[in-house]
Amino acid sequence: MKYTANWNYPTSMRVGAGRIKEVAEICRAMGMQSPLLVTDPGIVSLPMLEKVIADARAAGLSCGVFSAIQSNPTGENIENGVEFFRSRQHDGIIALGGGSALDAGKAIALMAGQSRSLWDFEDVGDNWTRVDVTGMVPVIAVPTTAGTGSEVGRASVITDQEHHVKKIIFHPRMLPEEVILDPELTVGLPPQLTATTGMDALSHNLEPLCSPLYHPMAAGIAMEGVRLVQEYLPRAVADGADIEARMQMLVCSSMGATAFQKGLGGMHALAHPLGALYGAHHGTLNAILMPYVLQENREVIEPVICRLAGFMGLVETDFDGFMSWLLGLRKQIRIPDTLAGIGIGTEQVEVVGKMAVEDPSAATNPIRFSAAQYRQIVENAVNGVL
């Protein structure tokens, strides 16, 4: 089957192999004459980026490149990006790369014409109303990993280095105006990064499904998103050139970020502080934390997990059957069993517990865990206690 389509959900999306060639056309249609291409440092020297720049220039566009972004983008990265954008008089953003590049690109586009601090727009209360929308510039989002789904999100996760905390910067118009899902751009992704970003996509579908908020549409998307992970993530990890698997995982990633309108939960409430404190990869953290958080939520989420297990066609359609599948998947794609496996111990467990309670994702966990409960989950994840 040929997977090519144009969607308008939740934004305008061009889906299919080779569609990156349309980026210059999209820029011109949006009125961009001088887009800034925001990308990951690891992509700067790759042929894909050179081709995008060449196509843009062939179409008469002046295309700059900004790649000074950490794997967990910081406020300083955004400030530097905004200065770069303004000094060269760019008029729009092409965010191309993994979640860090997409988040950074959206944040730079938000801040391009603002006079306030980035942190004034943290997703707390009605802070988003402070944004001068006339100062925002359009974004074209092109993911090269299948994990965060930031291409269909209205927020960016940025690290406040001064306070060692990740903050969510939000505005409804941060949703990119155009998205390109081109599986050919993900073919070069190494197996381990394919695995961890794919598990991130799983967390973005699984946590909304378990969230107590009412949003049947998001729940339906989430359930199919989990099934796509089940079918295609092992294939994508085993054979990086499997275009069908790459395509479906890109779609699954976008589905997860659409589904989490329904909320996230304890996995993210812990992954955010652990990522800020240790600099660990977000998808890896969610992948490791997943079974430990699910186990702590079991008394509340068991019915929905059983429905999910049935939908997935598992032989054992109870909670234990689902957990068995999850643990088997992690083993198959070589996800570490414990936080200790990536060098995280219990030395900051008190701080992490307190930060998790305050994280926005904690508000939609099925059970309102205390700091002590979050601390225990971290200890379990460090020591491998399920």
UniProtKB/TrEMBL annotation:
It holds the Pfam family ADH_Fe_C. It comes from the Bacteria. Its cofactor is Fe cation. Residues 10-183 form the Alcohol dehydrogenase iron-type/glycerol dehydrogenase GldA domain. GO terms for molecular function: alcohol dehydrogenase (NAD+) activity; metal ion binding. Keywords: NAD, Oxidoreductase. Residues 194-381 form the Fe-containing alcohol dehydrogenase-like C-terminal domain. Belongs to the iron-containing alcohol dehydrogenase family. This is Alcohol dehydrogenase. It comes from Desulfomarina profundi.
